[in-house]
Design brief:
heterodimer, A: alpha/beta, Rossmann fold, 7-stranded parallel β-sheet, B: alpha/beta, binds flavin-adenine dinucleotide
Chain lengths: 322, 248
């Protein structure tokens, strides 16, 4: 038996969420007494490193037709490898690309799709597993009797560890079918050098309490000092102070970093839905009755314009001391 | 142009989520249901296309009779026709297959869904539907421009966006950006009156397969009381984040 995991790469290199997915797949494979096969498409990094996270066999596809991401052709490639390896369980990261492929793989293989998974399966037969629902306001235990399944896992929910096991790297011949309905990529516009919000360990987020876009310098400075990604509340992105891609919450991106620092955000239920799975929450707000304090681990009742400069210098001296 | 907009009927975003005593079912008592926020962006986009290019908009929902309020709202906003497939939407594969069975011979030029519904957040129906109908699929779509049957699409990627080119027919799963928040349509009185005369057709479900079921639900663990730090002692916060939380 085999568990197949799609080892997503971005501009050739692997993401942290990929290591997490491989580690997760290897743990699922242990429960199934199965082998872990990782598939890398157009990755240019050293593939053997994926062995450290638990992959035993690494299949690589190099084909000019797959140089740029296309959800249909990538789904087909994953299916081709799964068919050849006899892998009934497929693990995919819940990234934007992962979410664009997983339903296609599931539907084409007539497999059950269970997305937003946060834990290892509780039972393999019948297959029972927990996933987030109601915009992270609840957790649901799902069951499927289908032999074939596609699981997408939430970033940062599972973590990973590096081991020293080795893996064999084998190339896989794959040519997309002409009949696949496809699209042409014209351009990719990515904020290079920035830390991706979904897989960031640390996130600094700010809301309407910051009064205007001109005040985001200190938010970015705090994020830089920490090595954190930046996020914002919905009204802040609606009025255009910050890009839509930073909007977290029930109708934005759901995140669960190790640390979430919320500055000048009231903590409305819709905001909390997207961030309350964060392991540690720090709230900085002038209003001691702001609902966010109820969801916080650490709180400072104070004015962001006074607290942030102090916090930035405290973080910088802490960083300098270690 | 012939447009299909898939609409899901979900608990209002302010809802406190609760379950029946044995935790096997969502407790809908006291909950207000609304149109899924992602679908509002899709429906407004459809209205823009109708006004600029001329189009007929069909909205579809898989659900029991309680969802008709949401379909009526879509008609009041400007959809021409509503379809309700009379089944409980308990599984994404099942819902997608039911919609596919309806849509297969209708020659839709464009199918618009939301990126996910905010209750079960599966993000599965749009992609599965695209496979059944053999259509190109753009997830997390934040921009669409049509020139005849040529489409320029923008999708969100991790840390950025990608511009794609394609040809109708196709299927997109939309979100904010497809239209702006401030442009979202709400029903006007005239629309509400006109909606009463528009067709809302109920059809019985075809034979479709369910892949998953929910055994039970739980709420996330409650947080313990928050540790308050004096605004003049931010060093203490740094110390706690380092020693106690071990995150810096
Ligand atoms: C359908 C729907 C979906 C939604 N989805 C989301 C979502 O996904 N994400 C989201 O974030 N919101 C969402 N919302 C909006 C949500 O209800 C709140 O309106 C929003 O989160 C409030 O943003 P805010 O906290 O930045 O602003 P406000 O509520 O205005 O809060 C500002 C806070 O800043 C504090 N403050 C003011 N000055 C200072 C200062 N100098 N220093 C420190 N603190 C200060 C204030 O005390 C206040 O608590 C949604 C709403 C609806 C209706």
């Amino acid at each position: 038996m085999k568990v197949l995991v799609y080892a997503e790469s971005w501009n050739g290199s692997f993401k942290k969420s990929t290591f997490e997915a491989i580690h997760y797949a290897a743990e699922v494979a242990k429960l199934m007494n199965a082998e872990t096969v990782a598939l890398s498409i157009s990755g240019t990094e050293d593939h053997a490193q994926l062995g450290q996270y638990g992959a035993q066999i690494i299949k690589t596809i190099e084909n000019a037709a797959l140089e740029t991401f296309d959800n249909q052709t990538y789904a087909e490639a994953i299916i081709a490898v799964a068919d050849e390896m006899g892998a009934d369980t497929i693990i995919i990261s819940n990234t934007n690309n992962g979410k664009a492929i997983a339903p296609l793989v599931a539907a084409k293989r007539k497999a059950a799709l269970i997305s937003n998974v946060i834990e290892l399966p509780e039972s393999i037969s019948p297959f029972t597993i927990k996933r987030k629902t109601f915009s992270s306001k609840a957790i649901a235990k799902y069951q499927t009797h289908s032999d074939k399944k596609v699981i997408t896992i939430t970033a940062n929910a599972f973590g990973y560890a590096e081991g020293d096991s080795s893996a064999s790297v084998e190339s896989f011949d794959f040519t997309p079918q002409e009949t696949t309905p496809s699209l042409t990529s014209l351009s990719v516009d990515s904020a290079t050098g920035k830390i991706g919000l979904t897989e960031a360990d640390l996130v600094v987020s700010a809301g309407r309490g910051l009064k205007g876009p001109e005040n985001w310098g200190m938010v970015e400075e705090l994020a830089d000092a920490l090595g954190a990604a930046t996020a914002c509340s919905k009204p802040v992105s609606d009025i255009g102070w910050r890009p839509h891609s930073e909007h977290v919450g029930q109708t934005g991106i759901a995140i669960n970093p190790q640390l979430y620092i919320a500055v000048g955000i009231s903590g409305a239920i819709q905001h909390l839905a997207g961030v309350n799975a964060s392991k540690n929450i720090v709230v900085i707000n002038t209003d001691p009755d702001a609902p966010f304090f109820k969801a916080a681990d650490y709180g400072i009742v104070g004015d962001a314009f006074e607290v942030l400069p102090k916090l930035i210098s405290a973080i910088k001296s802490h960083k300098a001391s270690i | 142009m012939n447009l299909l907009v898939c609409i899901s009927h979900v608990p209002d975003t302010t809802s406190k989520i609760a379950f029946t005593d044995d935790h096997t079912e969502f407790d809908a008592s006291g909950i207000t249901f609304v149109m899924n926020p992602y679908d509002e962006f899709g429906l407004t986009k459809a209205m823009h296309l109708k006004e600029s290019n001329g189009a007929r908009i069909t909205v579809i929902n898989v659900g029991l009779s309680a969802t008709e309020s949401t379909l009526r709202k879509a008609l009041a906003i400007g959809a021409d026709e509503a379809i309700r497939i009379n089944a409980e939407p308990t599984d994404a594969a099942y819902v997608a297959e039911l919609i596919a069975d309806y849509a297969r011979d209708k020659n839709f030029d464009l199918i618009i869904t939301g990126r996910e519904s905010i209750d079960y957040n599966g993000g599965a129906v749009p992609g599965i539907l695209s496979v059944h109908l053999n259509l190109p699929f753009v997830n997390a779509c934040i921009g669409l421009d049509l020139n005849g049957d040529q489409a320029t699409l923008v999708r969100e990627i991790d840390g950025g966006k990608e511009t794609l080119q394609g040809k109708l027919p196709l299927l997109i799963a939309g979100q904010k950006g497809l239209v702006e928040e401030k442009d979202l349509r709400i029903p006007a009185m005239r629309g509400i009156m006109m909606a009463r005369k528009k067709p809302l057709t109920v059809i019985e479900p075809s034979e479709a397969t369910k892949q998953t079921m929910v055994l039970n639900y739980d709420l996330p663990k409650e947080k313990e009381a928050c540790t308050l730090i004096d605004p003049d002692q931010v060093d203490q916060l740094v110390e706690l984040l380092h020693r106690e939380a071990k995150v810096i």
